[in-house]
């Protein structure tokens, strides 16, 4: 297959690129490097363009054919979306609409969209399945839901096939140790805990320890990026057989508290990791855990790399070599 990957220089996108390349598929990355990393291209063709630049997008993709598009390109920091909603509606919704326009012109049919558990808002059940009400409580989640609805509309017109994958918390890193999570500033829990373990000057904050959970800290569902990539692959194969609109949750189906994650990081790093308790953040539900029965049954998918210790070990292995990867790529650029 030949696949276009918008956002392929980002964290999850680069793991998708590696997964497809390892299975001898052809990959073309599209990215604007806003949060992505040049060193994550893994030697693939990269089209540098902003999805918001309609004319340039059309020009750069002119007459290019793909068997599918796996669309990761988005802004995804909840707190930033609260401070600057316009940026999120513009980048995430308008950017995706521009991409779909070009897909229609080029007669590319299949798109897999990176959606998020943020579309559900505050959970009303212990485990969240795809039929849970979607009432997002921040602009980020609202933009993801808007894109889902738009894609559904397009499939009803018979123009495209779309699969929306609602991820819970992506975590871990490639077994190759060539790619992993790397943002500045880092906003995700596991790399932040690991960094505070390695560098005592960095602070690791726990936002709230008085939630209605066994240890008072929030409970989340962590899914290894390799399992995410595998699910996209299976979903793409499924789309080639049936034309329609589908939504699947992707999580591990199990919840871990922030304190449990910290304790497992301490075990893996064999070190005490200091932390500070901060006030709760607005809009953080106590518990978010996925029901993944649909993806398991329909796609035959299992998150068998998502054992929490494995997630942390792979993240730590990447953190140890990350600086040398960045240095080597800077050297190559000069
Ligand atoms: N990381 C998670 O836990 C998580 C959870 C749920 C959903 N998601 C979704 O998964 C996708 C990937 O997340 P990630 O963690 O890899 O994020 P990331 O920020 O690492 O990757 C996003 C990539 O998209 C690119 N990009 C952004 N806007 C663009 C634009 N207008 N034009 C071209 N390229 C653009 C960035 O440069 C970056 O390479 C996002 O859509 C995100 O909302 C992530």
How does this model look, in words?
With about 325 residues, this protein is an alpha/beta fold. The chain contains 10 helices and 13 strands. It is about 40% helix and about 15% strand. The strands form 4 sheets. The protein has a 7-stranded parallel sheet, sandwiched between helices. The radius of gyration is 19 Å and the shape is globular. The model has no long low-confidence stretch (mean pLDDT about 95). The chain binds nicotinamide-adenine-dinucleotide. Nicotinamide-adenine-dinucleotide binds near residues 7, 36, 167 and 169. The site of nicotinamide-adenine-dinucleotide has 28 residues, from α1, α4, β5 and β7.
